[in-house]
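Title: Prediction job returns without error message
Component: structure pipeline
Severity: low
Priority: P3
Assignee: unassigned

Description:
Job completed but the reporter wants confirmation the result is attached to the right record. Sequence as submitted:
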Amino acid sequence: MSRVHILRDGAAVTDPLAPYAEVDRTRGPGPCWVMANVVGGLDGSAAIKGRVGELSTVSDARLFSLMRALADVVLVGAETVRAEGYGAVRLPRERIEAREADGRPGTPPLAVVTRSLELDWSARAFTDAPPWSRTLVITCAAADPGRLERARQTADVILAGDDRVDPELAMRRLSELGHRVVLCEGGPTWLGEVVAAGLLDELCYTVSPMMGGDPLPVSITPAGAPLARFALCHVLRDDDTLFLRYERGRDGQ
């Protein structure tokens, strides 16, 4: 039987991103390192009245923004883009300068996963993207040709699959574009598919001190998918908000 430990407060962390920035993300077995950053209530709910942002505490919102500095691309499902009113990725000036000093673009591009291409092309997710970080749209060959042409006028389109977006092929395409660290921010259906495909290397899970949200989990597992096991790597706390970081289990499951 493994030993049980009481967790006690340790030294204060002045930079909440520092424990995450120290992680070596060049060692994954896949074409790129795939991490997810999600927030859930104490009851596992992933939204309140249809919005994830309603669950977020002040400290979670801050870390959510900073976490993007670690990524080469920020990946999100179309429904989350619509519900949350996503804009282009923004970072604090010091994080932009640090990325540029490291030879990376100042901000990572946003990538939207969508089979239907039912998107508002005048939304900030597309119009606010800077020239060096144009928004990507990941879809499949079965997408409506007219919508596909419209998408290409506004974003850089990636085809990853025939009749659906294939998570493994999507990650391979992103890797071929030089995106070595992919940060998934939702939604639950897409995250479930990524996990089921055995592609998730790291899960950063914020436990918000709330209950009573929508009956929607942070990840929706496809029927018949195997269990995926993860190892706890660190725990941070800010007042009543917990920040848990997990990595793929040693057996790769």
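Comment from assignee: result matches the submitted record. The domain at 29-96+104-243 is CATH 3.40.430.10 (Dihydrofolate Reductase, subunit A).
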